[in-house]
Amino acid sequence: MATMDVSQRGALWIVATGVIAVGLYFFREPLTQFAMAIILWLAIDGLTETLDKRIPVLPRWLALPLALIVVLSIVALIGWVVVDNIAAIIGDLTRYEFRLNQVLSQLHQAVGGPGRAPTVGDLVAQFDPARLTTEIGESIQNAASAAMFTLIYLAFIFPAAGVMSAKLDFIFRNKAQRAAAADVFMRIRESMERYLWVQTVMSLIITALTYATLAIIGLENALFWSFLIFFLNYIPTIGSIAAVVLTTAVALVQFPTLGPVVGVFAGVGVWQFVIGNFIQPRMTGDSLNLSAVVVLLALAIWGTVWGIVGAFLAAPMTVMLMIVLAQFPTTRWIAILLSADGKPTPDSPRLSKSESGSK
């Protein structure tokens, strides 16, 4: 009988996992928008807490709108820089056509391709310009629509978060269960806020150092590539590699000699390696307590389900899943395997302070 119970439980878990995966995939558009709204809310809430603690004279009701303005202004600034520089890059493509043809010829010879080397004109001819223009227009329209719905979700999350404590009182009548549920929510919230804080600070440092490096070497549109690297650093492991490869490829197209190309490769790679391997792990602490293998696997799975947004959210979503799984005896072993140190639920600093204060 016990064997049947285990078998039924295993089958139920498999079916439930499959249904959840299908739901996440087919409803990925609204879910990704809602997830991005949650991330923005956590960033605003974390900055509000920081302002409230660091500036005691600043009232809480003023700290929240100030944090809201700061976070949304940063997002708007980054969006403006990216859009403005994309237009400049597109305008420079014809100027780089000769150099691009040289690079294509060198690559063709290196791989030993048959016939003559393809040119930029050959590659462009393979695409339908009208279709390409339509696809670009649709992508811009979809991005604007996603941004609008994300802001709408964000506006409704704030009042919903304010009454969450009262809802927990109605859901969990038992005091112990209510305290346990509040503890889980607090751990998830703090882990996400710490992770976002560390990633943002580290990304800003890397962005500033990368911009200085690229500007000194003379890479055009250095501000754009630096801001792009800012976003890529939110993708664990793969983002750092993509940042180095992308800037090196751009330098290879712009510069006729290998000296500046090597400089870009070494400069960007050094900042990514030093900060990513020595500084960031010390600051991250328990905010990303995931095994390195789990991070790569999560990146592949969430990227497949939700695309590029899933790649950005892979680490925080997996941390959230790990904390939830750790609360149940039947799934705690999964949370332990996901964690880096076998402790999927570290003590909550806020809870510890509140408990010590009550004592």
UniProtKB/TrEMBL annotation:
<dbReference type="GO" id="GO:0016020">
    <property type="term" value="C:membrane"/>
</dbReference>
<keyword id="KW-0472">Membrane</keyword>
<dbReference type="InterPro" id="IPR002549">
    <property type="entry name" value="AI-2E-like"/>
</dbReference>
<feature type="transmembrane region" description="Helical">
    <location>
        <begin position="146"/>
        <end position="168"/>
    </location>
</feature>
<feature type="transmembrane region" description="Helical">
    <location>
        <begin position="195"/>
        <end position="217"/>
    </location>
</feature>
<feature type="transmembrane region" description="Helical">
    <location>
        <begin position="292"/>
        <end position="325"/>
    </location>
</feature>
<feature type="transmembrane region" description="Helical">
    <location>
        <begin position="258"/>
        <end position="280"/>
    </location>
</feature>
<comment type="similarity">
    <text>Belongs to the autoinducer-2 exporter (AI-2E) (TC 2.A.86) family.</text>
</comment>
<keyword id="KW-1133">Transmembrane helix</keyword>
<protein>
    <submittedName>
        <fullName>Transport of quorum-sensing signal protein</fullName>
    </submittedName>
</protein>
<dbReference type="Pfam" id="PF01594">
    <property type="entry name" value="AI-2E_transport"/>
</dbReference>
<feature type="transmembrane region" description="Helical">
    <location>
        <begin position="63"/>
        <end position="83"/>
    </location>
</feature>
<feature type="transmembrane region" description="Helical">
    <location>
        <begin position="12"/>
        <end position="28"/>
    </location>
</feature>
<dbReference type="GO" id="GO:0055085">
    <property type="term" value="P:transmembrane transport"/>
</dbReference>
<feature type="transmembrane region" description="Helical">
    <location>
        <begin position="223"/>
        <end position="246"/>
    </location>
</feature>
<keyword id="KW-0812">Transmembrane</keyword>
